[in-house]
């Protein structure tokens, strides 16, 4: 933190270091460098999730398809397996299939090894990222409920409701507590 140049000015773009590697762009393609400026994952991707590495993996986009790689550049989730791969958060990422002709898509969650921890399903509409073993889940169904009618509760990794869907708003658990609202205006915390 002395203002010295430690990696030469050579990149068209760069993001902060994450887990020891930084996303960089060279000649329009993206890859990763270490703190010595060595390219450890070749600049061959069209896009990379701006968060870089999380839980030892990164979301990468190449030739019109998303995939997931580890810090060695090995593919963890095959390109094109999922239409969309969300940011890894609390060890999991939301994945989605391509929008069907009936304007629906299946949603699920994978872990950093590529295992589906919540299987792809249309019933996952309204499912949020799991945290502390529980995920916010609304009672929404495709084409059958308005936003104002939605209620939220919590499900476990088996999609079993463990806290009733009775809240107008619900947030993720952190340090054992989660913010909720029964009337949509006043917020309290539940355990």
Unreliable sequence segments:
none
Termini separation comes to 41 Å
Q: Going across the biggest sheet, name each strand in turn.
A: 1-2-3-4
User: If you compute it from the alpha carbons, what radius of gyration comes out, rounded to the nearest whole angstrom?
Assistant: 20 Å
Elements, N to C (H/E): EEEEEEEEEEEEEEEEEE
Describe the largest sheet: 4 strands, antiparallel
Label the structural class: mainly beta
Mean pLDDT: 88
Number of strands: 18
State the oligomer: single chain
Helix content: under 10%
Give the overall silhouette.
globular
Tally of individual helices:
0
Q: What fraction of residues sit in β-strands?
A: 35-45%
Describe the structure.
The chain is mainly β and 191 residues long. It has strands at residues 13-18, 21-26, 29-33, 39-45, 47-48, 57-62, 65-70, 75-77, 84-85, 92-96, 107-111, 116-121, 135-138, 152-155, 161-167, 169-170, 178-181, 188-190. Strands 1-2-3-4 form a 4-stranded antiparallel sheet, with no helix packed on it. Strand 1 (13-18) and strand 2 (21-26) form a beta hairpin. The model has no long low-confidence stretch (mean pLDDT 88).
Question: Can I get a quick summary?
Answer:
The protein has 191 residues and is an all-beta fold.
Write the layout of secondary structure elements.
Layout lengths: L12 E6 L2 E6 L2 E5 L5 E7 L1 E2 L8 E6 L2 E6 L4 E3 L6 E2 L6 E5 L10 E5 L4 E6 L13 E4 L13 E4 L5 E7 L1 E2 L7 E4 L6 E3 L1
Antiparallel strand pairs: 1-2, 2-3, 3-4, 5-6, 6-7, 7-8, 9-10, 10-11, 11-12, 13-14, 14-15, 16-17, 17-18
